[in-house]
Every structure is written in C-alpha cells, then in structure tokens.
Amino acid sequence: MPKDHGIGASPKRREDVRFLTGAGNYTDDINVHGQTYVHFLRSDVAHGTINSIDASEAEAMDGVLKVFTAKDFEAVGGLPCGWQVTDRFGEVMQEPKHPILAEGKVRHVGDPIAAVVAETPELARDAAEAIVVDIDELPAVVDMKAALEDGATKVHDDLTSNLCYDWGFVEENKEAVNEAFKNAAHVTTLELVNNRLVANPMEPRVAIGDYSRANDEHTLYTTSQNPHVIRLLMGAFVLGIPEHKLRVVAPDVGGGFGTKIFHYAEEAFVTFAAKALNRPVKWTSSRSEAFISDAHGRDHVTKIELALDADNKFTALRTDTYANMGAYLSTFAPSVPTWLHGTLMAGNYTTPLIYVNVKAVFTNTVPVDAYRGAGRPEATFQLERVIDKAARELGVDPAELRRINFIKPEQFPYETPVAVAYDTGNYHATLDKALEMTDYANFDQRAAESKARGKLRGFGIAHYIEACGIAPSNLVGQLGARAGLYESATVRVNATGSISVMTGSHSHGQGHETTFPQVIAEMIGIDESQVDIVHGDTSKTPMGMGTYGSRSIAVGGSAMFKAAEKVINKAKKIAAHLMEASEADIELADGQFSVAGTDKSVAWGDVCLAAYVPHNYPLEDLEPGLEETAFYDPSNFTYPSGAYFCEVEVDPDTGSIDILSFSAADDFGNVINPMIVEGQVHGGVAQGIGQAMLENAAYDENGQLLTGSYMDYAMPRAADLPSFSVDHSCQTPCTHNPLGVKGCGEAGAIGSPPALVNAVIDALHRGGYPVEHIDMPLSPSRVWNAIQSAK
Amino acid sequence: MYNFDFEQPASVDAAVAALKDEDALPLSGGQTLIPSMKQRLNAPSKLVSLTAIEALKGVSAAGGALTIGAATTHATVAAEASAYPALAALAGGIGDPAVRNRGTIGGSLANNDPSACYPAAVLGSGATIVTNAREIAADDFFDGVFTTALEEGEIVTAVKFPIPEKANYQKFEQPASRFALTGVFVAKTADGVRVAVTGASEEGVFRWTEAEEALSANFAPEAVDGLSASADGLISDLHGTPEYRANLIKTLTKRAVAAA
Fold it and tell me: SUPFAM superfamilies per the record (chain A) (predicted)?
C-alpha cells in the first residue's frame, strides 16, 4: 500500500496549480514603477577589433536615456570565474577578463557592444539600430584543435595562446596507464564528439535592476538558480556593493538546466544602470538573443582508449579531450571538463588505472558551462560507447562485459583511482532490473518482425554513475572552487504550529514546494499543508548556494532536516516542561508529544503556542520562540547510478530512428516523492534523447551560429519520444546524509545518450552495416550517410 | 517590428487598390510575414489584410475539380477537402494547429517557400492559380525560391485542383522546423502521372519528369527502382546533403505511389 503522505508518498505538485493557471510570478511578470528598458547591441561578427562606437544619433533620440559602452564600466570589475583549475604542470589556468560590455574587441556573435536604455523596449531597439560601430573583422577561431596550433589567431591578445589549461588526471598514474596499455590483451579505441547544446529553458532570461536612493539599496530580480551566489559574485567582485545593500530575488523560474546558474553581464548591467540613471532598468531576452547569450553546454572532442586483459577485465583507461570554453570563462566553466568529468571516468567499473587529459580551449563562440549533468554526461557517453565497441570487437554480450567489470555490492565503500569514493551502489541489481523491464529475452523475435518490414531493430545498454549532492566544501576548495558548496535552511515554526522553511535551494521546476514539506511532515507528523517553502530571495533566506548538480534534496534537504531536528529537540524540552516530565522520556509521533509509558500527551500546536506565548515556559533554561537554522556541508558526493536500455528501429531508406522502448532502472537511494522522481527521469531522458538524436549548436567557419532558432535547432517533442518505463526500486541509500537520498535531476540526461547511440549502432550491425560510430545528433541524414559508407 | 498602417478591406477590388501604396504588402495568415517583421527583416509601410474578404474563403467541389479560396486556412482545407483526400491530408500535416488555423493556401503559394507543402500539391496536381487578373497554370506559376509569376499588387484569389484518380503526399520532416526536408506529391490522372518535389531543390518545387514517365507507364513503386534522382542543384545544409535529398526523393516517390 503506497503511503498517502510524508516521505515516499506522491502528492501532486502544489506549485503546478499556479503554474498551470497562469498565476505564476516569473521575473518578466514583475514591473517596477518608472522602469526603463535596455536593449543590447550585440556583435554580429565572431571576432573583430572595435575601432569606434558612435552613439550620438541614438542618444539624441526622444525617449533614450543613455547609451552605455565599455567606457562606462572602467571603474567596475569583469564577470568573475568561480573555479580555478591548476594544470598538470602545476600552473593555474589562463583567465582572461570578461567585461560587461566588449572592450576593444568582440569575441563571439552575441557579445554585447553597447546597451541602450530607453522608455520603451521598442525605442531602445530602434536606437540600437542607430548606433554606428566600426569593427575590423578578424579571423574567427572556431575549431579547437586549430586554435591550439602555433600561430593561430588568439581570442585574447593578452594570453599566451588559446589554451586555458592542459589538465592531467591522475597525473602520477600516467606512466602506469601507458604501461598497462602496452601489456593489454585487447585495446579498443574510439574518437567521438559530445555535441554542443543550447539549454533552451522555456523561460528566457530576464533581469530587472532597481535602486533606492533613499537608503542606497539595490534590488536585482533575475532568472537565477542561485540568488545568493549572484549576490556574492556581483556584489563583491563586479560592482562592489556590500551584501546588506544588495537584494537578489529569483522568483518563479521557468527551467534552468544549468544555464541559469551563472552570473551574466546583463544582471550586472541592469543593477549598475539602475543606480546610474536612478530609474529601474528591465531586460527581457528574446529567444533569438538566448541562443547567442545563454551559456551553451557540452562541446567536447574526445579520443578514448580502453585496455582489457585476456579475461575481458578492464585494466586501464586513457582519454584525450578537447573542451570548448567559448570566448570567455563562464562562472563554473573550468570545473566541468575537469572535476565533474575526470572523476567519473571509473564509471561503475573496477578499472584500476585511469588517465584523463583535458585541454580547455578558447574559441570565438558563446561561452560553454554546465548543462544538465555537466561533465558527467560527457564522461558516461565516452565510457559506455567504448565499452559497447569493445564488446562487439570481442564478441561478448555488452551486458555481460559490463557485469564482469562492475564494482561488486560487497566492495562498497569503493575508492576509485580517480579520487572519489563511492559510498553505496548495486549495479548488478539495476542492470538485472532493466533487463527484466525490457523483455530482452524476446528481442530476437522482435528484430525478425522488424526485418520483415524492412526495418533494422537494435538494442542499446548504458550504465551510468554520477556524482551529485555537490559538494564537500573543503574538498572542492582544494580542487579550485572559489565558493563553499554547503546548503542552508531555516525552519520557522509559527505560533500555531504552521511552518515556513526558508531554504537556500531554489526550485525552477523541481517541485521543492511539494517535496520539502513531505520531509517536515514526516518528521513531525503534521499535515503537509501546514508547511510552506520560501526560496529565491536573499532578503528572506539564509545564505545558500542554490540548485544544480542534483543537490537540492541531498544537500538542501539535509540542511532542512538538521534545522528541523533542532526545532524538534527544542520543542521536546518545551513539551517536557508542559507535561512536567523528563526530556529524555518525550516522544514525538503523529504531531503529538507524549511521555513514554504514560498516557500524557500534548499536541504539536500547543507546544508551538507555548514557545511564542511563554506564560508556562522554562524561561530560565530556554529562549522563547521556535526557529532554527542549519548549514549542512556534505562529507562526500552522492552517487546515483542506473541502467538504461533503449530499443530502436532504424529505417535504412531514410536513416530515421524510431525509439520503440526506453527503460530506466535507477538507484537514487531513498525517494521522497516517487511521482516527482519519475518526472525528473522523464525530463532528463527527453533531454538526453534530444542531445543524442536532435539537438546541435553548430557554428560555421566564420563563427556564425547556424542553428540560432528553432527553424534549425531541433528540440525534442513528445512525438519523438516513447512512453518511458522507469523504476527506482533498486535503492542503496546514501550513507552520509540524514535522508539517505542521492539526487535524481540529471540522471536521465546522463544515461540516455549512450543507450540510444548504442542501440542505433547495434541495429546497423545487425542489419549488415558495420558502422562503428556516428556522432550525435543521430539525425536521419547522418545515419543514412553512415549506412551508405558501410555498404 | 516597426510601425505600419493596417487595412482590412472587404473586397478584392478594395484590396488591390489598397496595395497600390508604396511598400504595402498583402497579409493573409501571416505565418511567414509576421515573424520576419518581428525580426525586423521586413518593414512594409502598410499591411492589407485579406482575411475579411469572404469571397476568398471556402472549399467547393464540382465537375471533377476542387476549388479553394485563397484565404482558406489549412485547417479548413484539412477538414473540408474530402473530395481530394490527399490534399486534405497534406493540409492537415502542415506545421502545428496554431499554424494551420492561421496559415492560408494563397499565402503559402504566393510566398513559395522552397520547403512548403502546398507548392508540391499544386504542381503535382497540375492545378490552376486564379488571381484578380488572370488564371495561371501551376507549371507557369513557381519561379524559383520565394518567387512566383505574380505581378506587383496581384492577389491570388483561388486555386482550382483537378481531382486525380489517385494521389498521395509523402513528407519527410526537417527535424527542427518540421517543414519538408523533402516532400513528394504524386498524382495519377487520365492524362498520366505527375510527381512534384518540394524541400529538395535550390530552385524550389520541381517535377521529377523521369519518374512521371516511368509511373505513367506503370503506376507501381517498382517502376521507380531503376531511376535515381540527380543530386545536382539540390540543397545542402545541416539537415542533409544533396545526395541524401536525392535518396529521399526516390524513397518518398515510391512510398507515395504505394500509399496512393
């Protein structure tokens, strides 16, 4: 019998009522009295020297307040990077300045050159067209390998080259890895591309700057996943505004997927301009603008080699990756191809020796940063592809090859050779579950039926590991993070027992307003309707680090749990006083405090009232009130894992792919709300299939984005997807957080691309077309071309 | 979008008169024009809406022909062109419901997008485009990408389709836009078979005459087996090479014949 409330129940998402009835409060719904509008004049060339900007005509237009250029920002900082990577020679990465408006050069299509503030958005746009910019175009740096050649045009003239860093991990193992390859019985090699993506949240970015002259206070309303992080980065490093004079509000946010983590120029601009003009300034991105100003994701080019012994055991893994940083370092860009990628290269396997080399490269393209999964999809894709290729070369069943190399259940906790220690897992269980869900036994019969219709049926497996619950602050500090990654929560019990939880986590679709109350309700035994979640406003919530890396429940939920524990402990003291009993004898269940072994009890609400109306209260021992704050810093990452199986049919005449079934068996540890977890997997798988089959941010050799609208950038639609079969019954709870949770937000996007690609390659092989690899997206034309080349 | 004047006349004559102003453009469903204006790529001084002219609307079948008013939406054609099922199916597959409820056949033909569906049906059916001034045979109407035989200020008022014995349209969608990456319309009449291809050529919709000859002799998918569409002059873009599109032309032609 499924639970109907508390942890493990699936109440419907309470926030959906407002989202689905048009009552949401998104940033663009906010209008501040007297607001003006900014339009950014953006570069239409990828690389060039700015000779002059003549804004005189624009500034003279009626309704134009001011045209800003880089000159207006000489006294403020550039956009900071939140992570410093140290390369394999012990040197820190090259870190170019990232100005708010282009200084001297433009470095990608979309780079903002000038900003017009006017009384209406239309006027601002009209005026932007009247600005005359004289640019000498320079050769565009687009291809990463060419960018690193001697004599290549430099994106940043003040750097020594276009190389941001050359990272080796684990550098000390390099020679041992090379030695293992020399002794291998078999080596499988694969070269592949992890395609560049545009996140495309449903809500484009918006920012409103407001300034109060009366008390010198700034307010920034922005579409952010982490308002406190923006306040810190922008306040301390860009504009020099102390925290107590800067409020950042991220109200309802319509999807983030990583791209709304980062601190963007537009946020700093509206905050700065609002004070300069003493008028609120609003910016609303168009979809076209989002394509060339939101940080992109992925964009790795990799060569991976897997060494196996005569028993088909993995003996070593070696990878060589080029990671595109784009024109500037976005907030967390350097961490993605390194610590969020290299540390996952062990996957679910006992490979003893691993060496990962990553060269991060500057190019004249939009900056690249974290996107759903961030580094872990890139790691999983190459690993699960090369294992599949090895299985084919060796003539072994791909499930069996994985199984014999899995870390065994009894080996946990397991130290990988790439610096992380998995606390729990049972990969055999998830693999078996997925096989069961997929009816693998009858595949051959289905394949024969497809063949009779002229179609090629294939079956693909991927197993993934990810590191979530980001992250232990002292560890990431050693790795180059310039921030702590704890989370905070305040549990404020009101006088009649209702509860407001102020959390540093931010919900932009995840359902925190539903799931977080489930935890509190379970702990206290009250109805979930008595608990509300407050998030997204630095003036209301304690300093927290926000939502990304599948960390909300694992880190933010744990902070809330700790704060609620403190509340309960204090409430027990009050209850003990009210019942004239010993605190040690007080038990809390179903919203009632009782004295063990007696029939004495007092209700939750009465205890809360006593805390705020302390007439009968131990005032000499206890302060009145019932409100506690906790900051939780995890001691390790969490390690969700799972097996994803995909069955496809390929039309050899057109190259089109029909996904017939998709099964996901995930181990997320304990699950708070199964319905929401399933929804997260559905969304993640849809995004992963989008990457694998449809999406591609493609640049031409001049640095022009060829896929700058939905006419050419293919988003996944419902009709492209099968009805997913998902399961999360294989649960090995996390051992180091109080809820035993691991996080589920990114899993779908991590596990699904290799499952789909493996299935298509399998279909082609079974159909007599020995194609080793097709780079994503597996568009019909790419699949058809591969078939032709294999004929 | 820049400012513009707007008129919504009730008759074709009034619309023709209103279009005499410099930089005035006719507006039908606006599915191409409005987005291009929003992107500031098009800046007419005046839009003359054709959607209030009742004479331009409706679907009627008589004497073996189907006549569709130029301002009839795709959704209406999908629902009401039951006398010509292949055409109704084509209309029902254009864009999405929002597009089908605004976009019109006349607008689509006057625009002549190289990847649009209707040009394939009109050319494949050997239809006649009726304007305020004359009647134009389909073979004379399409004049390259986004170009037609229409004169300045000339308005499409209706399209007359001879109803074939058999017909079918096969559309292979471009993954992003869902326009035709390649689409093939095949129609069999007493006079023979016509095969019209959209989405594939740099010159816009065209007839695959070799296939027409082969299918006129034997209306069966196998009749096309020995042929191959030439890749010369076909579109090369992110979504497909000329060779890929040539393959699609042949594959879709066979499928259209099989389904007709």
Answer: CO dehydrogenase molybdoprotein N-domain-like, Molybdenum cofactor-binding domain
Instruction: Report whether B184 contacts B122 (CB < 8 A).
Output: no
Cα distance between residue A567 and residue A555, in whole Å = 18
Q: Given its phi and psi angles, is residue B241 left (phi above 0), alpha (psi -120 to 50 degrees) or beta?
A: beta
How many other CB atoms are there within 10 angstroms of residue A255's CB atom? 17
Q: Tell me whether A704 touches chain B (CB under 8 Å).
A: no
Nearest Cβ partner for B244 among A122, A713, A784: A784
- CB contact under 8 Å between B238 and A707, yes or no, is yes
Q: Which of A624, A173, A494 is nearest to A356 (CA)?
A: A173
Q: Which domains does chain A have, with CATH numbers?
A: 16-22+486-632 (3.30.365.10), 31-138+202-255+260-293 (3.90.1170.50), 296-471+636-790 (3.30.365.10)
pLDDT score at A1: 58
What residues contact B105, with CB distance under 8 A and at least 6 apart?
Answer: B68, B70, B72, B74, B77, B91, B118, B159
pLDDT at residue number A412? 97
Q: How far is CA A672 from the centre of its chain?
A: 20
CB atoms inside a 10 Å sphere around CB B260: 20
Contact predicate A665/A646, CB 8 Å: no
Give the 3-state DSSP-derived string for A97-134, with helices as H, strands as E and coil as C: CCCCCCCCEECCCCCEEEEEEECCHHHHHHHHHCCEEE
CA A75 and chain centroid, separation: 33
Query: Scanning every residue of chain B, which has its alpha carbon at the shortest distance from the alpha carbon of A707?
Result: B238
Look up the ipTM and state it: 0.96
Rounded to an integer, what distance in angstroms lies between the CA atom of residue A254 and that of residue B58?
41
**B177 at A interface, C-beta within 8 A:** yes
**Gap between the Cα atoms of A232 and B140, Å rounded:** 66
Q: Identify whether the C-beta of residue A557 lies closer than 8 Å to the C-beta of residue A520.
A: no
Quote the tokens at residue B228.
């191959």
Mean pLDDT by 10 residues, chain B (260 residues): 94 96 95 94 96 96 97 98 98 97 98 97 98 98 96 96 98 97 97 97 97 98 97 97 98 98
Q: Residue B177: list chain A partners with CB under 8 A.
A: 710-712
Neighbour tally for A442: CB within 10 Å: 9
Q: Is A164 helix (H, G, I), strand (E, B) or coil?
A: strand
Shortest distance, CA B157 to any CA of chain A (angstroms): 29
CB contact under 8 A, B176 and A781: no
Q: Who contacts A261 (Cβ-Cβ below 8 Å, separation ≥6)?
A: A224, A225, A226, A229, A331, A332, A369, A370, A546, A548
Cβ(A108)–Cβ(A365) below 8 Å: yes
- B58-162: which CATH topology? 3.30.465
- Decide which of 3.30.390.50, 3.40.50.300, 1.10.1060.10, 3.40.50.720 is the CATH code for B166-259: 3.30.390.50
In 3-state terms, chain A is what percent helix, strand and coil (to 5)?
A: 30, 25, 45
Maximal C-alpha separation, chain A: 88
Where b means 16+ CB within 10 Å and e means fewer, B199-228 reads bbbeebbbbbeebbebbbeebebebbeebe
**Looking at CA atoms only, how far is residue B39 from chain A in angstroms?**
9
- Determine contact: B248 vs chain A, CB below 8 A: yes
Across the interface, whether the CB atoms of B176 and A713 are under 8 A apart is answered yes
pLDDT along chain A (791 residues), means of 10: 86 96 97 98 98 98 98 95 96 98 98 98 97 98 98 97 97 97 98 98 98 97 97 96 98 97 98 98 97 98 98 98 98 97 97 98 98 97 98 97 98 96 98 93 95 97 96 93 94 98 96 97 96 97 94 96 98 97 96 96 98 96 97 97 98 98 98 97 98 98 97 95 96 97 97 98 97 98 98 91
Chain centroid to CA B136: 14
